[in-house]
Design a protein that fits this description.
Distance between the termini of chain A: 38 Å
Radius of gyration of chain A: 13 Å
Largest interface: A-B, 23 and 28 residues
Number of strands of chain A: 11
Order of helices and strands of chain A: EEEEEEEEEEE
Oligomer: heterodimer
Structural class of chain B: mainly beta
Strand content of chain B: over 45%
Helix content of chain B: under 10%
Structural class of chain A: mainly beta
Number of helices of chain B: 0
Largest sheet of chain A: 6 strands, mixed
Number of strands of chain B: 11
Order of helices and strands of chain B: EEEEEEEEEEE
Shape of chain B: globular
Shape of chain A: globular
Helix content of chain A: under 10%
């Protein structure tokens, strides 16, 4: 079993839709939960992260972690065509190394 | 991406050839990583180095070797390339001084090298 499982997608939504991206993880030692965004032909770039459980909001993006169920979510409100990218969830215990999900490719259609 | 550069950006090679992928960074970070990305398999760690004298295997190191020539340079070699090493390869860096408690040690990725082994 992989340590981080991500809903595979791909996902295609109309502009303005609310998007929900989800992952589960298995290792209780993980404390940081990250979302990376990867545009086509680019390297991944950290979008946001949460430490331990709870929610974190940054503009149209909300990251949510439920450690009791080992569930990670990213919500995108009022999605825009510029949000079209592959989104990777990742976890780490903090010491540099990260474990990544397989990624979900999102397309937001104008 | 400009802080972490990878060369070449694209490479086609034949089975059995030895090739080297190079990574340079101007971020001054001690920690560097090599990942490969395959469709449906996400990012998988090949090797990582926490300083110039430290090299560690990741989850898929077989068939690969690395060299940390300096703090700023970390190269990945395929000693005898095979077709299932066709993938997108990423170098990344991180800084342990910027991660403690609720502050994450963020990884910064290069633009990637697209490798095709025929």
């Amino acid at each position: 079993q992989k340590e981080v499982e991500q809903d595979p997608g791909p996902l295609s939504v109309p502009e303005g839709a609310i998007v929900s991206l989800n992952c589960t993880y298995s290792n209780s030692a993980f404390q940081y939960f990250m979302w990376y965004r990867q545009y086509s032909r680019k390297g991944p770039e950290l979008l946001m992260y949460t430490y331990s459980s709870g929610n974190k909001e940054d503009g149209r993006f909300t990251a949510q972690v439920d450690k009791s169920s080992k569930y990670i979510s990213l919500f995108i409100r009022d999605s825009q065509p510029s949000d079209s990218a592959t989104y990777l969830c990742a976890t780490t215990s903090g010491a540099g190394k990260s474990t990544f999900g397989d990624g979900t490719t999102l397309t937001v259609k104008p | 991406d400009a802080d972490v550069t990878q060369t070449p950006r694209n490479r086609i090679t034949k089975t059995g050839k030895r090739i080297m992928l190079e990574c340079s960074q101007t971020k001054g970070h001690d920690r560097m990583y090599w990942y490969r990305q395959d469709p449906g398999l996400g990012l998988r760690l090949i090797y990582y180095s926490f300083d110039v004298k430290d090299i560690n295997k990741g989850e898929i190191s077989d068939g690969y070797s690395v060299s940390r020539q300096a703090q700023a340079k970390f190269s990945l070699s395929l000693e005898s390339a095979i077709p299932n090493q066709t993938a997108l390869y990423f170098c990344a860096t991180s800084d342990p001084s910027r991660g403690a408690g609720e502050t994450l040690e963020t990884q910064y990725f290069g633009p990637g090298t697209r490798l095709l082994v025929l």
